[in-house]
Amino acid sequence: MNRPEKLIEGDIRLDGRRPDELRPIKIKVGALNRADGSCYLELGGNKVMAAVYGPREVHPRHMAKSTSAVVRYRYSMASFSVEERKRPGPDRRSIEVSKVSREALEPVIFEEYFPRSAIDIFVEVLQADAGTRTAGINAASIALADAGIPMKSLVSSCAVGKVDDTLVLDLNKDEDNYGQADMPVAMTPDGNITLLQMDGHLTRDEFREALEMAKGACTTIYELQRAALVEKYSSQMEGGDVIE
Prior knowledge:
Ribosomal Protein S5, domain 2, exonuclease, nuclease, hydrolase
């Protein structure tokens, strides 16, 4: 694939968005009946499914912690999720994304409530279009809440990047491939950062501005996450279901 001549022209990006504009987001809570909690999320062209199982018994047992739960996060991409067929199974990237995503969510989970237990989070990318780790964290956070896992708050995630010397929010595929920087961020509603990575180069001023852009985007995403959860459980209550 050849690099487009310009990734941003004036104030408009190739996909028609302004620099500070998110791609469309679609959220469905409880998409899987057999999981304890689940979420299907679309972020632009990304299609991600998250499922949570637990708290449940730890296998193998030697991995259990006597004072808290073990949180396990498995991120994987379906072989058909990208244009060039991906080889099935874990690779270095999926292992790295699983690790940083777990670390982004662990600070908000009350792990001490469930000693000698496991909380398993599975994130499957069905279609990839840049920003899959941030989409996965957003979906996983909702799935944890849907499973009834006690949490201090939700976690919301978005990436900020730099293309053609301009800071942009929520990079698309071309911007991710050919941009000058990419900075995924995850944070709680009160602004505590649980994930911050950067690939590329930003000046100090650009970094500060990018962080403010990410904070605003995460606030918007949090409101969408919260609204999706409220919608699901409000409809259950109206339907006569008892929520304990």
